[in-house]
Write the structure tokens for this entry.
Amino acid sequence: MKNIREEFGDIDIYIFDQIQKGRFAPGMKIFDAGCGGGRNIVWFLRNGFDVSAIDVDESAVTRIRELAERLAPDISPENFQVASLDSIPFSDEGFDWVICNTVLHFAADRAQFDDWMAELWRVLKPGGVFFARIASSIGIKDLLIPTENGRYLMPDGTERFVIDEEILRDSTAKIGGTFIEPIKTTNVENIRCMTTWVLAKNAAARS
């Protein structure tokens, strides 16, 4: 019997929450945009999902291909590509889920953020679900130091493009998304706040 860590890897707890809510079905096409070491796709590879991923780090993509070969050898290595959100190398409306975990706050400014969102939305099927976690000013606005172009120096020492509720709602309206969960923000001892953003594409809100 597998233990929880073996089964799920080091999955983000907020993606685990989506699994617990029964929002995934085997065979769904899952896209991890900015996969890093692959911590969020272990469970999907183990459980019959058609997984694809990109990352700008070539060594990370090599590791993901090795992981997939071990856990889901029927998936083509070509599902895992070295690429950025500027130009995602997959076809329109190809995925049931797009996961973009702790990546969007690396945008240089709002214009690039909007371009990245347009690309992520392009590859999502109608009725599909978009999941993101992103650095936020919600809860720590007075502790952020503005630099330029919507970027801020955060109390943890990092500089990031930071969203707030207005940006999330504006962006959601621009792409034609529907919130399927409330905006949820986690405050980590006032050194950073991370907001979870979950949308459906051209679909009614779900409970």
Remarks:
- The mean pLDDT is 94.
- The first strand starts at residue 29 and ends at 33.
- The chain has six helices and eleven strands.
